[in-house]
User: Fold these one by one.
Assistant:
Number 1:
Amino acid sequence: MADTLTARVWREQPQRYRMIGNKDKATGKVYFPPRQAVPGNLNPEMEEFNLSGTGEVVACTVIRVAPTPFTDLAPYGLAVIETPDGVKLTAQITDVPVEDVKIGLKVKFEFRRIFEDNDASVIYYGYKAVPM
């Protein structure tokens, strides 16, 4: 099981670790994570696209009773963040008191430790949002 999880994590590395999506050359629409097909076109011409790494909170909540393996982080802010590229991402908001997580908050994405799976001996990394 651990080998399967580790392989999946490595396969998803470009978008997970470097925020790489893709852009439909015909429409200019940006997708994250990258897609092979888009609505109305099963074979679009796509190009790799680096997301801006910044955004604005458009919806948010505070998680007070967190699921495993995040129980030690509660309470924490969770938000939908819209990037200047038009992509909406869900991310944990960190380095700020939860009462300051509000719609309109400008954030940047940072590469951070997400959680550790001790049973599989895997540490998961990804992006979290921090105030600018």
Number 2:
Amino acid sequence: MRILIFLICFISANIANAQDAEASKDNKGGDVLVYGDDQVNELLKQHVAINKKKCPHLVKGYRVQIYSSAGNGSRENATRDQIRFLANYSSVNAYSMYEQPNWKVRVGDCRSRFEAEKLKKEIQVNFPNCFVVVDFIDTAYLDNCK
């Protein structure tokens, strides 16, 4: 009796299989037609155009963080440290930013961690608590792009 039930289930499962192995091998794909708002399509075109640019504005890189603090007066202290940094290292960019709840000052636009570590070692005399962080950086070659 159990064998009969097993055979019936096995045979019905094979018969009920809706996919044909030969048909699935010949399927080469097709076109997908999407109906939607024209504004959505325009935004998608703009998105693709931005991503295809040869010169991105921001790329993943490294910076050295010289200040981070929260609380009263942290914004003024961040500005003070940014000015102090720029007075000593005028050729290096400095960025003051607010990431809740901290004010931070990050410096440099380093493409590699090695470059950032070199900068950190150079400024550690004046900013002993500095450390390297991953950040999106401004690219130096933007002026050469068209």
